[in-house]
Structure formats: structure tokens, C-alpha cells
């Protein structure tokens, strides 16, 4: 083993590491091989982007896991050590009074050093993710030239609101929209035909880290279910300007700006003379309400028009796509750039290109709605563009949106059964993620996916809505 697999002589063949490690595990040889010989190539493989060798070597053997981690720390490979500690869940162990062959008191308490390594590894991964995102956005920037752009006059009036002073300034501007709107609107067409009687709404949030790989991908099934991120921004687009509300700064319950923000938005959302345009608006409202349950403004919106719902209804038998970018290409002549959709909306400060992207997603709804309503070739689209009232209800501690102001009858919902079904779905999803992270066969976790789909179907029968992961309320 030592001479033929774990050594790379000058000019020799590559190390056959996977074959060697299987042999070592099969015959329980790890204790017979020195750390320098056995563990050095394993750490090198992690550096080369192949952590599975370390994972497979230590799987199920806590002594070998600790030996590998302590060796990595002693060799200055703290990032590799942090990833291994997280992968093996070693911080859940006591880590006290351990006798490690290459550890000395001068290095500090082993547990403290392990915690520091995990923090360093997480910070390094975040830096890598940001750098990769920046490279991707830079490479795709040239493609934006052929995409839909904000009108110059509107682009010059995109306002980021994140402080009390900015909130008071924008309050005056939004109040003018309310005052100039008609008292009521009989239908969507009437309001869309009036300048100043429509606003576009959209929201952004930080991408779900678990989908991005690295340490986040390797959370163990015994850990708590990862919650979805709260909404980071809310965009409100009027005819000549767009407001980007920084919800992470303004909306948390302990901020003095929270109720002021709620009052400003309520005056807009409850005005029936202003049509509120969205794309997937029910999902956005559900997420906003779950993110900030203490704000009344996200509990109901009157006079909404969801363009996605209208297109799906009008084209339900045609099998045509209803993505916002493709619709802009079809009806406005240019697609939307989506390269910033998965950028880090939780990072501050927001970049100028993020603000432009967020503003355009909301403002394009105004032009798109009017174009769709006047589209003579598909009268079904115009017929499907009806105003709706949206209200949010809490069912079994989940936010559920009802349409046309009709509340869900409490007597028809078995809250306990809904809560149990939701818990089963979350646990099954966590189990599937753990199986994928552990490299289980595809056939194994696909069988569990089938069970997950059955659980989700059961949830819909009980609650009347599709299951969505819980949203973490925003904290300061």
C-alpha cells in the first residue's frame, strides 16, 4: 500500500488514491499507516477539488475523522479542516479531553480551533461564491445590450430607500400617486388606460445557499430544516420613477421605520383606483407576509392584476411559455436579462446594476400589461385580465393567499394534519439532500423523491394550496 499507492516517485504514475483507500478501509489498515503517508494525499485531493476521498475515508469512523482533522490543522490546511469538521458533524461531539497524536496544548483547545476553522471555511466559501458570481456577471454583461432597458427618464429616477429620512422623502412622491388616481376603477382596462393609475410590484431575496454547493450542500439530515431567505427588497414602479425599498433595513420588527413603511404601502395597496401589477404576485405576497408577519401592509392588496395568471389562463391549452423574459421578447421586442436574478440580494450595499435590474423587473410590467390588453390577435388574454383582491391567512403557521377577498373557512382545514404533513415534507426533503451529499445511488434517492411528491399532493389536499418551504422572518 505504502510503496505502490500512496507514494508518487519522481516521474512515476499518478497515485491510485480511490483504489488505495478502498483497500485501507476494507482491511482496516488506517491505524497501521503513518499520517504523513496516508493523510497527505487525501488533503492534496481536497485541494484539487476532490473532497470525496476524505469523506469516504472518514465515513463512520470518528477516530479517523478526528485524526484527519487534527492532521490538516497541524499542516496549516485550516480550510480543509473546516470543511471536514462540518461534513462529519464533529462540533456536535464533546471534543473535550481528547488524546490526539499530533496535537499539543500550545495549539489551544481543540474544540476552539475547530470552531475557528469552520468559520474560516464558511467565509472562504462565501468569498469564492461571490467571486464566481462576479465573473459570471462580467462575462454576461455584454449580452445585456440586446435586452430590454429602462427608459432613460425612468433610469434617472430609481430611488433606493433604506433610512428614515429617505422613507419620508419618498412618502411625498408616492402620496402624489395616490392623490392623482381615481377613487375607484371598474375594471383593469379602465385603469390601464389612465396614466398614473397603475403600479408594478416585484420583490427580490437572497438565493438559497443549499443549491450553490460547498459546505451548504453537505448539511446533515439531523440538522434543522433550512428555511428560505426573507424578502430583501420590494420594488414599486410608477410611470416615471421606481422605488426600491430595502426591506432588510426598513422592515424588521425592531426598526422604527417598520410601521412607517407599512403605512406608506397600505395607502397604495388598499387604493382601488390603482391597479397593482405583478408576475406571480400571489407567491410574492405570501413570501412578504411570511418574512414580515408584523406588517399589516402585506396582509392584503386590493385591485391586483397578475399577468402570469392571466397568460396561463388564456393559453392553458396551447402549451406556450409564460416566463416574463420570453413574454417581453414576444410582446415588447426584447427579452429581460436574468443574469442578476440569483445575485446576492442579501449583501449590502446593493450594486447599481442590481438596482437597475430590480427596477426594470417592476417597471416593465406597466408596458407589458398595456400591450397585452390591446393585443387583438389573442382576445382571450384581454378577457383573462381581471382585477382581484388578495388576502393572506395563517393556516397551520403557514401563510396562505386567497383570491377575491374570500377567506379560507377555518372549519374546513385540519390545522394539525396540515402541520404534520408540512413537517413530513421538510424531513423527507432533508433526507433526500443528505443522500445526494453522501453520494448515494441515483435510484435510491429517486425513490424517495416519489414519496416526497406524494406527501406534497397530500398537503395540497389538506390545505388547498401548494407546499412551500418556510421563510425565515427578517432579523436586524
From TrEMBL:
Gene3D superfamilies xref list: Ribonuclease H-like superfamily/Ribonuclease H, S15/NS1, RNA-binding
Positions of the WHEP-TRS domain: 417-473
Name recorded for this polypeptide: EXD3 protein
KW DNA-binding (keyword) present: no
SMART domains membership: WHEP-TRS
Keywords in alphabetical order: Aminoacyl-tRNA synthetase, ATP-binding, Ligase, Nucleotide-binding, Protein biosynthesis
InterPro entries referenced in this protein's UniProt entry, alphabetically: 3'-5'_exonuclease_dom, Exonuclease_MUT-7-like, RNaseH-like_sf, RNaseH_sf, uS15_NS1_RNA-bd_sf, WHEP-TRS_dom
Gene it is expressed from: EXD3
One Pfam short name: DNA_pol_A_exo1
Amino acid at each position: 500500500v505504502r510503496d505502490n499507492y500512496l507514494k508518487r516517485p519522481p516521474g512515476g504514475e499518478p497515485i491510485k488514491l480511490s483504489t488505495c483507500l478502498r483497500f485501507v478501509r476494507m482491511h482496516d489498515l488506517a491505524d497501521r499507516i503513518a499520517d504523513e503517508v496516508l493523510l497527505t494525499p487525501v488533503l492534496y485531493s481536497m485541494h484539487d477539488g476532490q473532497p470525496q476521498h476524505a469523506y469516504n475515508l472518514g465515513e463512520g469512523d470518528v477516530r479517523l475523522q478526528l485524526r484527519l482533522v487534527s492532521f490538516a490543522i497541524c499542516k496549516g490546511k485550516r480550510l480543509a479542516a473546516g470543511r471536514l469538521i462540518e461534513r462529519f458533524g464533529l462540533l456536535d461531539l464533546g471534543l473535550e479531553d481528547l488524546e490526539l497524536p499530533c496535537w499539543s496544548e500550545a495549539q489551544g483547545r481543540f474544540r476552539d480551533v475547530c470552531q475557528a476553522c469552520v468559520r474560516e471555511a464558511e467565509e472562504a466559501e462565501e468569498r469564492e461564491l461571490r467571486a464566481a458570481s462576479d465573473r459570471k456577471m462580467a462575462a454576461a454583461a455584454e449580452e445585456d445590450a440586446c435586452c430590454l432597458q429602462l427608459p432613460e427618464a425612468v433610469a434617472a429616477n430609481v430611488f433606493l430607500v433604506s433610512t428614515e429620512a429617505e422613507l419620508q422623502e419618498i412618502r411625498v412622491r408616492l402620496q402624489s400617486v395616490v392623490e392623482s388616481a381615481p377613487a375607484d376603477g371598474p375594471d383593469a382596462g379602465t385603469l390601464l388606460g389612465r396614466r398614473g393609475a397603475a403600479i408594478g410590484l416585484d420583490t427580490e431575496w437572497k438565493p438559497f445557499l443549499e443549491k450553490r454547493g460547498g459546505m451548504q450542500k453537505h448539511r446533515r439530515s439531523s440538522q434543522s430544516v433550512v428555511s428560505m431567505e426573507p424578502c430583501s427588497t420590494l420594488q414599486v414602479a410608477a410611470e416615471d420613477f421606481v422605488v426600491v425599498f430595502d426591506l432588510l433595513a426598513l422592515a424588521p420588527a425592531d426598526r422604527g421605520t417598520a410601521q412607517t413603511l407599512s403605512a406608506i404601502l397600505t395607502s397604495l395597496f388598499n387604493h382601488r383606483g390603482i391597479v397593482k401589477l405583478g408576475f406571480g404576485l400571489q407567491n410574492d405576497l405570501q413570501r412578504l407576509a411570511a418574512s414580515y408577519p408584523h406588517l399589516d401592509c402585506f396582509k392584503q392588496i386590493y385591485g391586483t392584476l397578475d399577468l402570469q395568471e392571466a397568460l396561463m389562463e388564456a393559453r392553458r391549452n396551447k402549451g406556450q411559455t409564460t416566463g416574463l423574459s420570453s413574454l417581453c421578447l414576444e410582446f415588447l421586442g426584447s427579452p429581460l436579462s436574468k443574469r442578476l436574478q440569483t445575485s446576492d440580494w442579501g449583501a449590502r450595499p446593493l450594486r447599481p446594476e442590481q438596482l437597475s435590474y430590480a427596477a426594470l423587473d417592476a417597471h416593465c410590467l406597466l408596458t407589458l400589461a398595456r400591450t397585452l390588453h390591446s393585443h387583438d390577435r389573442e382576445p382571450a388574454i384581454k378577457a383573462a385580465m381581471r382585477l382581484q383582491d388578495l388576502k393572506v391567512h395563517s393556516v397551520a403557521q403557514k401563510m396562505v393567499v386567497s383570491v377575491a377577498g374570500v377567506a379560507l373557512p377555518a372549519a374546513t382545514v385540519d390545522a394539525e394534519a396540515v402541520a404534520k404533513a408540512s413537517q413530513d415534507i421538510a424531513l423527507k426533503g432533508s433526507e433526500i439532500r443528505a443522500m445526494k451529499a453522501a453520494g448515494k445511488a441515483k435510484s435510491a434517492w429517486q425513490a424517495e423523491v416519489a414519496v416526497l411528491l406524494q406527501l406534497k399532493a397530500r398537503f395540497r389536499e389538506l390545505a388547498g394550496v401548494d407546499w412551500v418551504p418556510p421563510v425565515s422572518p427578517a432579523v436586524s
